[in-house]
Amino acid sequence: MARPPKNLLIPTRDGISPSCVALPATGADCPWPTTVDFLAERLPAVTREDWCRRMASGEVLDDAGQPVHADAPYRGGQRLYYWRSLPHEHRVPFEATVLHLDEHLLVADKPHFLPVTPTGRFVRETLLVRLKRSTGIDSLSPIHRIDRETAGLVLFSVRPQDRGAYQALFRARQVDKTYEAIAPGPAEGAALHSATVIQRSRIEEDPSAFFRMIETDGEANSETRITLTERRGTWARYALAPVTGKRHQLRVHMNALGLPIAGDQFYPTVRRGPGEPEDYAEPLR
């Protein structure tokens, strides 16, 4: 279905890159008389009425960059381009800071609650779109990701021709990453008092809870090095160095040690369901 376009005739709009959908070739028994029939069936997250509105506003283009109208006959083999939008998107009330920018790299300090790239209920309220709008660099592309709830540094490639080389460094684990987290202090006598603990486990999606991950039996697919760096009363600061990059890995590993990260909305229990309002006063620490 939708996949990244490579057509230079189709521009970025207000920081949002176009999405692309390929129209499959059909025979004489084509099931879609018009282009909007195809779009409404294959991309039902957008209503037929909204597709018609978008097409009337010139927001659906063909390979030549020309608007496609709702009553245009279906023509298989072509590609159409459109820009994701949401009827309402809540503002994330925190700003990113650009710490470094040169001809190859941009380094941004991402705040809590802001996704790196458009996904689900976030399009404009993402780090990538905000940076494209503020810098005017439409070619920005994240080299790695961090969780929406996590604050930290995110690297972007500036030139498309450099992107693959930087991403290869992360895949080959030639880039070291270290995060800081606040969590309960370890119990007396625990190994964390005197040494770095290496937590290895198999992490998979939790079938019983939305968007949660759990440790399961089987060959380890995740590894984190955990070091106690400071203790104040019942709380402590830890340095977390992930060797792998599974979803929620640091949070799952800390929770498995009985040390859930302060402010975590998913571990050890889910405290906020899908669509429920964010509590911006209690970020992941």
Count of alpha/pi helices: 5
The total domain count is: 3
Percent range for helical residues? 10-25%
What does the main sheet amount to? 5 strands, antiparallel
> What radius of gyration results from the CA coordinates?
23 Å
**Order of strands side by side in the largest beta sheet?**
8-12-11-9-10
Q: Percent of residues in beta strands?
A: 15-25%
Note the gap between the termini: 38 Å
User: Might you state the CATH topology name of the largest domain?
Assistant: Pseudouridine synthase
**What string, H for helix and E for strand, traces the elements in order?**
EHHEEEEHEEHEEEEEH
Gross morphology is elongated
Unreliable stretches covering 5 or more consecutive residues: 1-5
Question: Mean pLDDT, nearest integer?
Answer: 90
Number of strands: 12
Q: Please, could you describe this protein's structure?
A:
The chain has 5 helices and 12 strands. The chain is α+β, with helices and mostly antiparallel strands. The chain folds into 3 domains: 19-82, no CATH class; 97-171, Alpha-Beta Plaits, CATH 3.30.70.580; 179-256, Pseudouridine synthase (2-Layer Sandwich), CATH 3.30.2350.10. The protein has a 5-stranded antiparallel beta sheet. The protein has a 4-stranded antiparallel beta sheet with strand order 4-5-7-6. It has a 3-stranded antiparallel beta sheet with strand order 1-3-2, with no helix packed on it. The longest helix is centred in the middle third of the chain and has 12 residues, at 160-171. The chain is elongated. It starts with 18 loop residues before the first strand and ends in a 29-residue tail after the last helix.
